[in-house]
Amino acid sequence: MEVEENTTLTTASESSIPASAAQTILPQPLQPVIPPLIVPPIAPIPVAHTHASLPVRPLVIRPPPPLFHNGEAGSSDSDDSDNDDSAHGINKGMGEYEISEESRLVRERQEKAMQELLLKRRAAALAVPTNDMAVRTRLRRLGEPITLFGEREMERRDRLRMIMAKLDAEGQLEKLLKAHEDEEAAASALKDEVEGEELQYPFYTEGSKSLLNARIDIAKYSLVRAALRLQRARRRRDDPDEDMDSEMDWALKQAASLSLDFSEIGDDRPLFGCSFSPDGKALATCSLTGAAKLWSMPKLTKISTLKGHTERATDVAYSPVHNHIATASADRTARYWNDQGSLLKTFEGHLDRLARIAFHPSGKYLGTASYDKTWRLWDIETGEELLLQEGHSRSVYGLAFHHDGSLAASCGLDALARVWDLRTGRSVLALEGHVKPVLGISFSPNGYHLATGGEDNTCRIWDLRKKKSLYTIPAHSNLISQVKFEPQEGYFLVTASYDMTAKVWSARDFKPVKTLSGHEAKVTSVDVLGDASIATVSHDRTIKLWSSNVTSEQAMDVD
């Protein structure tokens, strides 16, 4: 601003001086005016802007070039160095240089590490035996020492893996192993020719000749019975005169009218089993004294006493074809008696006490269930043990035979029921559903229903055709000790329980029909006669006979 003021003053003074005098006076006032025109701060400003606008070069690793007082020499050196670097890079790309010793060693180490990695990958993919004897054998085949000093199993296996990987990389492993396998095959073939054929052991336990004959006999017997049952069922289905509903209604009406007919003290100790004779003229019972007794029907008069067991008797059964009796006992034996009280056969072989027993429908075979987790089939004529059947994980308690004779059903303390094919020996069904031990089991005469009862207070009805449970009956307030179908047509089911009652259930829909109350202690066994007579025995030592009040004339009125 001062410069502008000075210039205005000078111009004003100059304009005021006349032209003639200006020529003489002008040089004198110019000397003091010139110094203010040169302002010192203005001079360095363009120089500073010139240096700041120069580009900043990146930092280089090579030693810095020599600096000069003027910037031109330094810039020319840097340009020359850039040209040299570009030329050196071109030569480097063209391969016109020598690798240093250190770089060569590093490259060799990398290649070696890569080869080792590939070798380990190939070794990991090889199938190496895990058995130490097989590892030693493989090492011997490959011509390597089978063991080294201080070498353990895993180390030996790793060594075999690496050897096989190296041979595989060289392409010699398959060829070498194939040669050894051919040599061994030739040696084994020669050995077989010299020693002859080796024994071929079956995967099953081969049965005896008598068991084979028994299976053939059971198959022939069951085929005839099954054909007759199916023929009768078809006839009843197709015949308009047959009214199955009316027959079932008549049977259920008889069951609903059951009442206590006789009650008799059976023994000094609790009773444990009962069975009707095939003709219905006698009843057999057994008790914890070890004795079995025969009673005449219907007055329950004692006929004879069967003594022979040294421990408590657990069950009694009448033969379906003879008036002979079989008893089971905790002394691990079953005994076969005639109706006169004479001992005919003793079946020994079980390793623990027996539970229930049952006759095959043909009357030729006897089945026994035991706490040794097995059930066995015996030939009654010879007393020979034909079959020892395992399959339960705990004690076997109940046993029943199909009315055709082809199947057997067992139940046990493992809460499982199994159905066995006697003609082949196979377990054809495993019936799972009970949550506690199963104590009673019974086949229906219709051929396809099976009833089981157990400690879970329920009775289950199984359909053998559908292989599943059809009904679950919450039957009692305590465990069910035994179940029995009506033996003629299977129109109703009877269950005995430790709640001191026995109950009758309709086979049509398995609804309750009648409750038989009268015992003062646990009801341990029940049996059903064809004309709707039921016998029960209990821990109160009594035998109770329940009979129907419906007469034949009244039955004819049922439509």
TrEMBL record:
UniProt-listed Gene3D superfamilies: Pre-mRNA processing factor 4 domain (4.10.280.110), YVTN repeat-like/Quinoprotein amine dehydrogenase (2.130.10.10)
* Native species: Lupinus albus
User: Disordered: where is this region?
Assistant: 65-96
Q: Which residues form the Pre-mRNA processing factor 4 (PRP4)-like domain?
A: 130-183
WD repeat segments? 306-338, 347-388, 389-430, 431-472, 473-515, 516-547
What GO molecular function annotation could you give as one example from this UniProt entry? U4 snRNA binding
Which SUPFAM superfamilies did the record assign? PRP4-like, WD40 repeat-like
- Pfam families linked to this entry: PRP4, WD40
Q: Which UniProt keywords apply?
A: Coiled coil, Repeat, WD repeat
Query: What is the name listed in the Swiss-Prot or TrEMBL entry for this protein?
Result: Putative transcription factor WD40-like family
User: Which terms under GO biological process does the entry name?
Assistant: mRNA splicing, via spliceosome
